[in-house]
Amino acid sequence: xxxxxxxxxxxxxxxxxxxxxxxxxxxxxxxxxxxxxxxxxxxxxxxxxxxxxxxxxxxxxxxxxxxxxxxxxxxxxxxxxxxxxxxxxxxxxxxxxxxxxxxxxxxxxxxxxxxxxxxxxxxxxxxxxxxxxxxxxxxxxxxxxxxxxxxxxxxxxxxxxxxxxxxxxxxxxxxxxxxxxxxxxxxxxxxxxxxxxxxxxxxxxxxxxxxxxxxxxxxxxxxxxxxxxxxxxxxxxxxxxxxxxxxxxxxxxxxxxxxxxxxxxxxxxxxxxxxxxxxxxxxxxxxxxxxxxxxxxxxxxxxxxxxxxxxxxxxxxxxxxxxxxxxxxxxxxxxxxxxxxxxxxxxxxxxxxxxxxxxxxxxxxxxxxxxxxxxxxxxxxxxxxxxxxxxxxxxxxxxxxxxxxxxxxxxxxxxxxxxxxxxxxxxxxxxxxxxxxxxxxxxxxxxxxxxxxxxxxx
Length: 458
Ligand code: SAH
Fold this sequence. Notes:
globular; 22 strands; 10 helices; alpha+beta
């Protein structure tokens, strides 16, 4: 169907913001034609200049506000919105939490599942400075080495020292490293020529352990002035326990390469989640907001109703965070995950923590479910924590075949959650409690939640 486009590029229109898209952009309608407008909030009356026109929608920019939303935070520093560090930074935190709850409610309503309730989002008392990991690109800008963050949808670097949502100890470590790289004239990598040395600085810090790791990602095998830089980091970053060079000499958007060389200290740092000790090396996956991850996973575990006698499957188990925390409340836990290195970490972490009743398998969760089903496995509880694309349909069918009594669904994407709730419904599973959203990524548009389903036909 051809839609008549009523707006023109570079023209200005008066408009009222009617909605906030799931990406956090204001939505205005001009003769029913939707225009997405960054930094515009529902209820605001604005003058919009059209910046880009597509066949079914357009993009615009606010030129002036006639009225502002009471939920608006006046962001002094536009960098955070420009770079996508904090795309919801202009919305008061209480309103961010409501926005996340409403997103799930709206999708349920569209799917005619509005009898399912959604609880208020569990938020953070201090919704800033929460990230325990930073990966910061290094670039030469007008003759000076800079660290910062890319503008949304581009490779143009905005120099930043205070990253707003990262652990401030990490921000200070990055400044120390940046100053040393400047002092010793280390050249930043240039994407166009593939020349230069330093590509990215990565810093991780244990929330409980306070152990800090600095990873210098280089385009070259040799890091010039390595000793001086290492000594400078050790002197300038009191908590540092590990300094690693990671070599990434490929023309790629991937931040880290496969080769690590420990320049100083240990090869890995440690931190705890839900009372379990985890080893974290440069390439390990590890949850970036430990406080809220604990609340999210604890909600999942509390709802599993475990008394030590159950068999539990943890599908999409990553490094086994959920599996290992569940193990002490269950008879046996089975984890499956597609990334081999994550399963190695899971096994290693099980051993270190003396956990013997957790088994980990590398594979596609859907394939492994078919195998478990064929082998006659009868789980009492299936926990799924899938990526954004949700759970494979065959996994849902296998869960029904294995007749698990409960399914706990940890979701990072409400759209696929709602789709999958319908599919679980076809296997006899029904949502037995209000859905609990948990804010894992304050100031951003990510929506995480826990849903409890039970089999009601048997
Ligand atoms: N709970 C985990 C994180 C889950 S994130 C932890 O704390 O470590 C989702 C995971 O699903 C990722 O680790 C991803 O690698 C994995 N994954 C993606 N597709 C998969 C598939 N088809 N089968 C199994 N695992 C998959």
